[in-house]
Amino acid sequence: LNFQTLVKAIAKWDKDRFGYVVSDFVIGYSSANIGSEETMALHKRQEEVLRKFRQKQLNLLVATSVLEEGVDVKQCNVVIRFDRPTDYRAYIQSKGRARKEGASYYILIEHSDRANCSSDLKDFFQIEQMLLKRYRTAHNPPDGMPLCSEQEVDAKVAPYVVESTGARVTMSSAIALVNRYCAKLPSDIFTRLVPQNRIIPVSVSGFNLFTKKAELLLPINSPLKNGIMLTTPMETKKLAQMAVALETCRRLHEHKELNDHLLPVGKDTITLTELDDDPDEFIPNMNYKVGSARRKQLYDKRVSCFIFFVQHIYL
């Protein structure tokens, strides 16, 4: 929080050099006060900050270790740690945020801690290389082609266009839209809803090469229960993931999970206009989506039958 205040002060003090910096922060919170109004308000604020960062309304995000895992953020070109990672998990999770091509990863440490940090980083690097060597096999080959430009990517598969509104989603924007849809699904603050991707190598006949198919599985509380399989192989994993995300957007729109402007019909836009005739579902002024944390239902209480002396009992 102090660093966030300092960043804003510097940007305001020297607008010519640092005026482009638009920053905000996210922090973790204790599960002891889960359900309290303060915790719920903090969680809502965290979601709003992450949404702005994904949509590039922010270009600098100050965060605690809450962002090390379980939270989807866009590809970053610079990641700076203000303390050294204590284990390999923390190292690889924070380093994994610097996924943009040519990204930089920095660790700031005390001078007195330099020797210990260097030793740990050497071990972490060896572990990383060992894992890459062990699991980068013919069934999980590295991409042999550099990523194309955005225009070239979008030209590989035609965009999905809604004729009534003109809204469109392309290969390069499909993954972000799927992630945004998942973020709008009903969930509690413990749950991070993310789609699951599976890459399937496809051997090219006559060549020692592999193309890639992808399968995408949405979270369990999405109406689309079955995995969405890419039928046409692509040259790289990334292109396969983009193509299957584009197909997912098309199916979500067909199932009315995306409106005609290709926006998720989720926590921010849902309006409950009809109630089920089942009295268990009827609650006055109910406006929460089924499956959300605040949705409540009424159930009749029943008492089990007791044993009669004259009746036979079977197990």
UniProtKB/TrEMBL annotation:
<dbReference type="InterPro" id="IPR001650">
    <property type="entry name" value="Helicase_C-like"/>
</dbReference>
<protein>
    <submittedName>
        <fullName>Helicase C-terminal domain-containing protein</fullName>
    </submittedName>
</protein>
<feature type="domain" description="Helicase C-terminal">
    <location>
        <begin position="1"/>
        <end position="153"/>
    </location>
</feature>
<feature type="domain" description="Dicer dsRNA-binding fold">
    <location>
        <begin position="174"/>
        <end position="272"/>
    </location>
</feature>
<keyword id="KW-0694">RNA-binding</keyword>
<dbReference type="Pfam" id="PF00271">
    <property type="entry name" value="Helicase_C"/>
</dbReference>
<dbReference type="GO" id="GO:0031054">
    <property type="term" value="P:pre-miRNA processing"/>
</dbReference>
<dbReference type="GO" id="GO:0004530">
    <property type="term" value="F:deoxyribonuclease I activity"/>
</dbReference>
<dbReference type="InterPro" id="IPR038248">
    <property type="entry name" value="Dicer_dimer_sf"/>
</dbReference>
<dbReference type="GO" id="GO:0030422">
    <property type="term" value="P:siRNA processing"/>
</dbReference>
<dbReference type="GO" id="GO:0006309">
    <property type="term" value="P:apoptotic DNA fragmentation"/>
</dbReference>
<dbReference type="GO" id="GO:0005737">
    <property type="term" value="C:cytoplasm"/>
</dbReference>
<dbReference type="GO" id="GO:0004525">
    <property type="term" value="F:ribonuclease III activity"/>
</dbReference>
<keyword id="KW-0378">Hydrolase</keyword>
<dbReference type="InterPro" id="IPR027417">
    <property type="entry name" value="P-loop_NTPase"/>
</dbReference>
<dbReference type="GO" id="GO:0003723">
    <property type="term" value="F:RNA binding"/>
</dbReference>
<dbReference type="InterPro" id="IPR005034">
    <property type="entry name" value="Dicer_dimerisation"/>
</dbReference>
<dbReference type="Pfam" id="PF03368">
    <property type="entry name" value="Dicer_dimer"/>
</dbReference>
<dbReference type="GO" id="GO:0070578">
    <property type="term" value="C:RISC-loading complex"/>
</dbReference>
<dbReference type="GO" id="GO:0005634">
    <property type="term" value="C:nucleus"/>
</dbReference>
